[in-house]
Amino acid sequence: TSSKEIEKKNTKYLTRKQTAKLCKIKSLATLWNWKQQGKLVPKQKAGRKPLYLKSDVIDFLNGVNKNINN
C-alpha cells in the first residue's frame, strides 16, 4: 500500500509501519525518537504495539503541533 492509499483508508489508528510509510521514513527508530521528543506520540496500544491516531499523523505532516508545551 502507498502512503496515498493509507491516507484514503477509513481507519482511525495506524500501526508503526503504516505511520512510517505515511511519513516517508524508513526507520522505525525515527518514530521512537519523535515520541521521546513529544512530536508524534501514539495514542492507543494493541497489546504491546503502539497505534498512532491517523489525524495526529496527518496534522504532524502538515506542520500542526498540538503539543502546547513546545
Note the topology.
Elements (H helix, E strand, L loop, with lengths): L2 H6 L4 E2 L1 H8 L4 H10 L6 E3 L2 E5 H8 L9
Antiparallel strand pairs: 1-3, 2-3
Characterization of the model:
This protein has 70 residues and is of the alpha+beta class. Helix content is 46%, strand content 14%. It contains 4 helices and 3 strands. The radius of gyration is 11 Å and the shape is globular. The relative contact order is 0.19. The mean pLDDT is 86.
In short:
This protein is an alpha+beta fold. It has helices at residues 3-8, 16-23, 28-37, 54-61; strands at residues 13-14, 44-46, 49-53.
Gross morphology is globular
Strand order of the largest sheet: 1-3-2
First-to-last CA distance: 34 Å
What's the quaternary structure here? single chain
Task: Count up the helices.
Answer: 4
Mean pLDDT: 86
Order of helices and strands: HEHHEEH
